[in-house]
Amino acid sequence: MKHSDKPAEEGYELWLRYVPIEDEALLATYRTRITSLVCVSDSPTLKVAQAELLRGIKGLLGVSIPLTDTIQPGAVVFGHPDLAPPTLGDEGYIIKRLNEAIVIAGNTDIGVLYGVFHFLRLLQTHQPLDNVHIESAPKLKYRILNHWDNLDGTIERGYAGFSFWDWHKLPDYLAPRYTEYARAVTSIGINGAALTNVNANALSLTPQYLRKAAALADLFRPYGIRVYLSARFSAPLEIAGLKTADPLDAGVIAWWQAKAQEIYQIIPDFGGFIVKANSEGQPGPHDYYRSHSDGANLLANALAPFGGIVIWRAFVYASENPEDRTKQAYDDLVPQDGLFAANVLLQVKNGPLDFQPREPYHPIFGAMSHTSLMLEVQMAQEYLGLATHMVYMAPLFKETLDAETCDGPVAKTVLGMAGVANTGSDRNWCGHPFGAANWYTFGRLAWDYTLSSEAIADEWLRMTFSNDTPFVQKATGMMLTSREAPVNYMTPLGLHHIMARSHHYGPGPWVTGGRPDWTSLYYHQADSEGIGFNRTPSGSNAVSQYCSPYREQLAHLDTCPENLLLWFHHVAWRHVLKSGRTLWDELCFKYNEGVTQVRRMQADWDSLAEYVDAARFEHVRALLAIQEKEARWWRDACLLYFQTFSKQPIPADYEQPAASLEYYMNLQHYFVPGIPEQRF
Amino acid sequence: MKHSDKPAEEGYELWLRYVPIEDEALLATYRTRITSLVCVSDSPTLKVAQAELLRGIKGLLGVSIPLTDTIQPGAVVFGHPDLAPPTLGDEGYIIKRLNEAIVIAGNTDIGVLYGVFHFLRLLQTHQPLDNVHIESAPKLKYRILNHWDNLDGTIERGYAGFSFWDWHKLPDYLAPRYTEYARAVTSIGINGAALTNVNANALSLTPQYLRKAAALADLFRPYGIRVYLSARFSAPLEIAGLKTADPLDAGVIAWWQAKAQEIYQIIPDFGGFIVKANSEGQPGPHDYYRSHSDGANLLANALAPFGGIVIWRAFVYASENPEDRTKQAYDDLVPQDGLFAANVLLQVKNGPLDFQPREPYHPIFGAMSHTSLMLEVQMAQEYLGLATHMVYMAPLFKETLDAETCDGPVAKTVLGMAGVANTGSDRNWCGHPFGAANWYTFGRLAWDYTLSSEAIADEWLRMTFSNDTPFVQKATGMMLTSREAPVNYMTPLGLHHIMARSHHYGPGPWVTGGRPDWTSLYYHQADSEGIGFNRTPSGSNAVSQYCSPYREQLAHLDTCPENLLLWFHHVAWRHVLKSGRTLWDELCFKYNEGVTQVRRMQADWDSLAEYVDAARFEHVRALLAIQEKEARWWRDACLLYFQTFSKQPIPADYEQPAASLEYYMNLQHYFVPGIPEQRF
């Protein structure tokens, strides 16, 4: 294979590279269409917009165009609120050709900035401008990145290095990277950043740390990014010496009110709190025999006078509860529908368990019509091979967004989307050169969930790598394949949570011991008869949490989608699937198919060397080799393990396992990224 | 102040930027002197040399010169061993103009590579080539970076982000940064890298991790960099299940022999082990009532057949010992002089305590003539303001290198130098844009300890920032000032170890409780009479560890250098110093002088805006502002605290403390970098 001679890149510029357009005809056209900038205001946000336009045009067209006061042919006029239809709301924009000029207008400055980034995206992806007329407004109000970054610089489930929030040097030193982050985030319409881990540290609410957060908020303000902080429910005990954190205690109420006031004095546009309470050891209102709504409303009432919100996570399950874990959040929260304050949003993961390669949609969606909901997705690849596996998540996110509840598709039941960030200190932000596609996807879908996975891949690839058609076509195919590949080599047919314990790196279907619902056996239920978790009425009846007709569809073996089969059913090894294969043979097929898909991705990538600089090309190539190796590890370990129940051979036309089950079970991995507290 | 319009830089290229030479006359001359490359071999090392020459010449001169087989005028001929004097040894080189060509020759390929980097340095610093004739060979054999990087990605005393060894992805993915590291390291003559923390994890000696280290060793080999690993003395217990780690036990001996063989099978040029034993909780031979030489020789004998060495750290002190801590290493080790195997090097810190802003030289130097010694210095600023303070360490290192022992200067008593690396994942490698100067200095002094601090600063500045004379002059002045400034605002007049506990961030002269020798009171001994540690014969008599006449010089108040006064003497508050000021007034003067020096550095830097790109300029500026703030913090806190003993006023012509002693004593800092294990 022959490398391209393109200059080495490291991915730091993400999708905002603004590299010179090589197509001479297109370049000539753009240069006549874009000859000057006209702006009527110099607000901080419009200054950002102007700088971005100058930078983008300089990079893409190779020209520095003048700023003028008069609109001439070729002018790009931005910031004119009078030209924006009121229907676009606070964040929407219009991009329109008008009398030989191009107008980028919004009702607010931030709307204009979003429009500017869209305009630059048109140029980056080589779109025609002649009849451009775009009107766009976000379909969801809240589009928030959730950073699980800790104050000590580690990131929970962070696979791209460590945190780039340098709390130690804040507020005095503002790293240039913060500005690059703001540009990237805003370019895809994200309007909030929760800076700190949901497994929260109360210190983040002390004056010392609030000043640090305020410095970031000041920097982010022109970009329309509101800062959110995770709030530890027991903070009044830990940083204020109160004797209780009971949400109905007058002293506690007063403390949170004062804390809210203190925060808004230095961060006037503070977004609000995100709270993980009474889940996985986190403190919460249950500690005082109060409900989640009691806890959420305590904080919400404190923030309400200042316009802040509380994002209360629905990822709750009891430390001891014999009930099917996937049912617990629903059981706990749905009865409280209508009890939450108006400025509380309940943030619900896409599925009822925990970011598995594939889950059914969370049954809370469509079941709490009197509560504002957020959809939480995870770009960090906690269960998807960490940052070494290429997994494009747009199809995954869209499976949930498009899933039909009785209130319509999930997307219509939520006010916002939260994405657990996959960013870190790695130069390319996300570890894997394709990781940024998921960050990008999150922003694009939160703005417009009707976008197709293909369309998002297409524009991301063009901006990130190349507009060459053969490249874009083949790489889009790779990305789309990459959604199903890990499902196949890790957890096909609805299997779930059979990863190694704690760090989730590699297969661990044999994991047992300790809490049942933290073992793999709990989830796969393999025995000599078959495999899978019976969640039908004859089992845990989790299907009952879905409304009709979905519950019936899921409850029946023949109507349950096969890709969720073992999520809902305990299925006999000899049960015949649609393919005509028995369950065992289908498992063997799927695990092998996953490996095959990765190999196809490798071959596709190898064929694209001429389109990508050697540095990024070789980086992806090395990671695909790791992915292929680990796909085989998953396949061999899982099939050998499940074979101890099925007692059937792996069909001879498949690759046979490279080692013994004992070998795989004895593999030990230390210092897997994303588990900061793990020490040998 | 007006920023320069130079393009933004981040410091990633370190001193190997190879930016175009702007001086047209010089450029024209260089272009006639350098017109082709001639190389007679294509060994891996000479391929590296050739690539570096092409890259450097392309960058500096803007031309791509051809590789030819024949020597014509303007040829740069490299790799000719026949042209190298044998006296240059294995690593030396000659750079010489010969018949209109320039010859870079060495007896070995690595000698040539060092010569190539020197040649490029000549161009980078705008040196004339017409009569160039340089012969250079390292004055010290071992020039080793000590990385205190942990397998989990943290760095002990790391202030520039986290580790850039990505153990998780090794050996499959070799980050480009490893190659950049190798280039930088080799360019300054460093020939070894100890990859792992001296507070060692036995896992680094397991096959899984050895394969990772081997991948790095393979990459480093052409650069002449040998890989060393820290060895945990108790590894046989921890990773092999032996019942003892007793160095005289046959099973233990056999285990280390087999381990050495295993290592050399995959790393044939493995450098050896570095060991911290029986110090600060690390296991060691004392656990079995054996001596340090027993322990060191165990490992040395295992490595000897393969040419490896053991670097045994002399930083040892007992967990319970009433003796003056600064005396313990000498007491423990000097009696063992002559007992260490030939391939053991004893690695001795520059001073007898622990990398304080200023220490006397370690009395082991000159006292163990039958033992091979290494000098250990620390670029990581554990006690020097972390990576936020500008502290140029060449003068500090040279104070020790030049210090006279009875065997001559310290430099003549050692076989090598080890430097605790200040590198991390920060884009600019060392956190502070001036931090790399200390990395650079370490390499340059280890190669040639006769270089002056000014000369090293001059060449580093020219390569890192600018050849403009006004810039180089003023910035050199700043760097030289920066050595004494922190001594003044932290620990003037020989004070030591009065930093905050554990993380050492900020002042903590009041630190007490726990082990006496981990408190500040132990070291400053302030009372109503005076301040300082009496190490004369009437006190701990640590001076007796120095030979005559140095011991007498240090023992007497009037001959002891004032900059070490309180290290060796308990001095009365009203004692009059050479300045004519009393000790108390001199302390006040020095603490204020430190702040003044930082302010002078700030003013100097502000005057240099036109010479430095805005990005690096503003970065340094922000950090100098932090340094000034923290210098005041140090001054005010220390003077207020010591005032409780002196009972004297801070002279009115100095700035008075900004807050109360109580305020400073109550300051709490969490998550200070460099203390991975610290959790709230």
Describe this structure in words.
The structure is a homodimer of 680-residue chains. Chain A has helices at residues 24-33, 44-61, 109-124, 176-187, 207-220, 235-240, 250-266, 292-303, 325-333, 394-401, 436-447, 453-464, 469-490, 520-524, 550-555, 565-568, 583-606, 614-646, 661-666, and strands spanning 36-39, 67-68, 75-78, 93-98, 101-105, 133-136, 142-146, 192-194, 226-230, 272-275, 309-313, 344-349, 372-378, 404-405, 408-409, 416-420, 530-531, 571-572. The two termini of chain A are 42 Å apart. The longest helix of chain A is centred in the last third of the chain and has 33 residues, at 614-646. Chain A is globular. The first copy, chain A, folds into 3 domains: 24-136, Chitobiase/beta-hexosaminidase domain 2-like (Chitobiase, domain 2); 142-451, TIM Barrel (Alpha-Beta Barrel); 487-533 and 570-665, Alpha-d-glucuronidase, C-terminal Domain, CATH 3.90.1330.10. With 680 residues, chain A is α/β, with parallel strands linked by helices. In chain A, strands 7-8-9-10-11-12-13-16 form an 8-stranded parallel beta barrel. The first copy, chain A, has a 6-stranded mixed β-sheet with strand order 2-1-3-5-4-6, covered by helices on one side. In chain A, β1, α2 (44-61) and β2 (67-68) form a beta-alpha-beta unit. In chain A, 36% of the residues lie in helices and 11% in strands. The first copy, chain A, has 19 helices and 18 strands. In chain A, α7 packs across α8, α13 runs antiparallel to α17 (583-606) and α17 (583-606) runs antiparallel to α18 (614-646). The mean pLDDT of chain A is 96. Chain A binds chain B through residues 8, 10, 151-153, 161-162, 167-169, 172-174, 176, 201, 203, 386, 388, 425, 427, 615, 619, 622-623, 625-626, 629, 670-673, 676-680, and chain B through 8, 10, 151-153, 161-162, 167-169, 172-174, 176, 201, 203, 386, 388, 425, 427, 615, 619, 622-623, 625-626, 629, 670-673, 676-680.
